[in-house]
Design brief:
Two copies of one chain form a homodimer. Chain A is of the alpha/beta class and 313 residues long. Chain A is built from eleven helices and eleven strands. The first copy, chain A, has a six-stranded parallel β-sheet with strand order 1-11-8-7-5-6. Chains A and B meet through helix 6, helix 8 and strand 6 of A and helix 6, helix 8 and strand 6 of B.
């Protein structure tokens, strides 16, 4: 499924011969750069104070996709030198058992970040479990206290949720100016849309949030210099929604049927890529855009947590 | 300074003879209705479980305006049957002294709401002091955990900050539809603009936030069906900023020089009232609009807190 950054960009160039100016935002490459930077920082920390950052991941149940995510996180930890601690519990575990592990990790000085893989089995109270992760180790950034700090001016954020943090990091690394720009975030989920809007606002963009109840999403989106789309609707954002020269960050990863693909499907974003390439000035591909950034930001948050806890600059 | 609701609306009618359709949103009257409702609820609670809601107010220093606010809050408590506890500390008190009072009120079962009058003297850490108020008694709703819950879908809010809550309450009481409407909030303060935007979004408006870094505030504001302005700039929002038929909630209370007024000044809003009346379908006057609602919402939050703590339905 994953194509290399170079083949991805050559596909674009070929298809867009006449509109060759669109820049493809290469999330795979940026994520690799970030992992290299994290790796260097972790070596420096280890050499200087002997601390190795640790990330605990709790997986409950046998969902295949969740198991894959957890495996990928573990691998990513290894590449940068973060020690990962993994707990896999059976589907029929009790909430108390999960809470016990969280409590132990909260107290464990080797663990600097705790992540509970979602979704949890339906007999568990997700909110209750997520709230049990102590705020200093909530590297996912989903705690309401984290979101509140993100929303408030003059407050330092503790942890920024990984996917929206990855979106903003891509804008930064590609030198996209945010201050004073119109930004439209499509989707208002707790884990992407809402924190992405709050982050853009922190950087002085003028932000509008478009969602399922918005009456004229196309008209509003067309005003944006920066579009972040996170709705999970394949190809929803058409070329006509896009202001010429806009920068597009596409968070959607949607499977669509594709008989020519050995798996029978391929992944597309929320944004109709072919049309967008003719209008936008820069765009993230799917896959290879925002996707690789999420785990990179998780590693970044874990390093940040270890630095904070050990007061390492 | 305060003019009665009836004289206020007759002024409008006279000035707007040709555009007589604008509705003046009478915050004074709505606040009175709400106080009456709170009063009835408090009687019911007292008769039923013998509990009287209590609000503690801490005032530090001798600022005249702060003293006035505290006095008004105390008076308002009396009118609805809330018992108020007042602590006035000298300007040169230490942070520890203030924290000690907060801690005592946190533990006091007679106290259901705690309010620290801002601003605090400059030698105190405001954030530190506000964070000391336990979340169950934070009737001001300024704690980041409260703001985070407000921002997150599917989370119940604990306390909504009083001024933005008052803005939305005015829209509700005047049957202004919010769902699916375009809303623009001008200003992004932690105590008004940001929570107002989050509240509008919770009610399914499509929200844009305009602020000091916004390049084309007039153009964006003109798209709004609902405008909430909270910037503190007298008459900043002109008639040309307003879409015909928009509903305007003006939070600004700005003194401007006025030689004809015995005090030498009069209060105006952020919105140029005379111009707005010709375009908008409804508008809050200043004074007599949002102003009276803030204290009414403080009383409402205090009652809510007492009901929650005593599990009284």
């Amino acid at each position: 499924m994953a194509r290399s950054a170079s083949s991805s960009s050559s596909v674009i160039t070929a298809a867009m011969a006449s509109e060759a100016s669109v820049k493809v935002i290469d999330g795979k490459k940026v994520a690799k750069d970030i992992r290299d930077e994290i790796n260097a920082e972790i070596s420096r920390m280890k050499d200087s104070i002997g601390v190795v950052p640790g990330l605990a991941v709790i997986l409950v149940g046998e969902r295949k996709d969740s198991a894959t995510y957890v495996r990928n996180k573990k691998k990513a930890c290894e590449t940068v030198g973060i020690k990962s601690y993994e707990v896999c519990l059976p589907e029929n575990s009790t909430e108390e058992e999960v809470l016990k592990y969280i409590s132990d990790f909260n107290d464990d000085p080797m663990v600097h970040g705790i992540l509970v893989q979602l979704p949890l089995p339906s007999h568990m109270d997700e909110q209750n479990i997520l709230n049990a992760v102590c705020i200093e180790k909530d590297v996912d950034g989903f705690h309401p206290l984290n979101i509140g700090r993100l929303a408030m001016r003059g407050r330092e954020t503790s942890f920024v949720p990984c996917t929206p943090k990855g979106c903003i990091e891509l804008l930064h690394r590609y030198n996209v100016e945010i201050k004073g720009k119109r930004a439209v975030v499509i989707g208002r989920s707790n884990i992407v849309g809402t924190p992405a809007a709050l982050l853009l606002q922190r950087e002085d963009a003028t932000v509008s949030i478009v969602h399922s109840r918005t009456r004229n999403p196309e008209e509003i989106t067309r005003q944006a210099d920066i579009i972040i789309s996170a709705v999970g609707q394949p190809n929803m954002v058409r070329g006509s929604w896009i202001k010429p020269g806009a920068v597009i960050i596409d968070v959607g990863i949607n499977p669509v049927e594709d008989a020519t693909n050995p798996r029978g499907y391929r992944l597309v974003g929320d944004v109709c890529y072919e049309e967008a390439c003719k209008v936008a000035s820069a765009i993230t591909p799917v896959p290879g855009g925002v996707g690789p950034m999420t785990i990179a930001m998780l590693l970044s948050n874990t390093l940040l947590s270890a630095k904070r806890i050990h007061n390492f600059k």
